[in-house]
């Protein structure tokens, strides 16, 4: 699950995906209606990968919280963000037993559930396993090793071929015939 490239813009509802960088800010696309808008440098833009949830034993990255929510719901939408905040807090406590309730505002809980459902609907919450990454790395290494072996074989083959010598030219006397 990768939250890279997804942002929240203060003062504007919903989540956005970064499309490009402009001279004075970013070009972002809404996950709700797919409209592209500029996010200027003077606006507060928060990257989702930098957000974490307060816990008693330390902060948990939003990625980890969303992964646990995804596993609990089995890829289905979770509670609506308009649900009672105490019900939302109880749900989070099931997922994160060390969740620090006094430090998290009700508005933050609502955002958390709203963002999860938006990202799920946009297809951005596909969990990535470490095993899949390891297999991809091994495959890339194997391909590069195969290319290196093929390149070595070509080099050896070229070195083994006899070099053709240029045909001998008659020696010049240094005198030119004119006609």
Describe this structure in words.
With 179 residues, this protein is an alpha+beta fold. It has a domain at 6-122: Orthogonal Bundle (Arc Repressor Mutant, subunit A). Helix content is 40%, strand content 16%. The protein is built from four helices and seven strands. The protein has helices spanning 62-73, 85-95, 106-122, 130-160; strands at 6-9, 16-22, 25-30, 36-40, 45-47, 52-53, 60-61. It has a five-stranded antiparallel sheet with strand order 4-3-2-1-5, with no helix packed on it. Strands 6-7 form a two-stranded antiparallel ribbon. The longest helix has 31 residues, at 130-160. The chain is elongated and about 105 Å long. The termini are far apart. The relative contact order is 0.12. The mean pLDDT is 81.
Keywords:
4 helices, two-stranded antiparallel ribbon, elongated, 179 residues, alpha+beta, Arc Repressor Mutant, subunit A
């Amino acid at each position: 699950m990768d939250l890279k490239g997804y942002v929240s813009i203060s003062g504007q509802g919903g989540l956005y995906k970064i499309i490009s960088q402009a001279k004075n800010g970013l070009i972002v696309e809404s996950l709700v209606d797919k409209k592209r808008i500029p996010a200027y440098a003077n606006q507060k833009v928060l990257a989702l990968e930098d957000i974490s949830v307060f816990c008693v034993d330390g902060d948990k990255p939003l990625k980890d919280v969303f992964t646990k929510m995804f596993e609990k719901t089995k890829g289905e939408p979770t509670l609506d963000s308009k649900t009672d905040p105490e019900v939302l807090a109880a749900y989070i406590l099931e997922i994160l037993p060390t969740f620090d309730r006094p430090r998290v505002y009700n508005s933050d809980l609502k955002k958390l559930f709203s963002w999860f459902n938006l990202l799920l609907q946009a297809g951005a919450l596909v969990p990535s396993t470490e095993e899949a990454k390891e297999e991809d790395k091994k495959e890339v290494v194997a391909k590069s090793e195969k290319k290196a072996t093929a390149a070595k074989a070509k080099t050896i083959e070229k070195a083994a071929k006899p070099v053709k010598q240029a045909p001998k030219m008659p020696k010049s006397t240094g005198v030119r015939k004119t006609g």
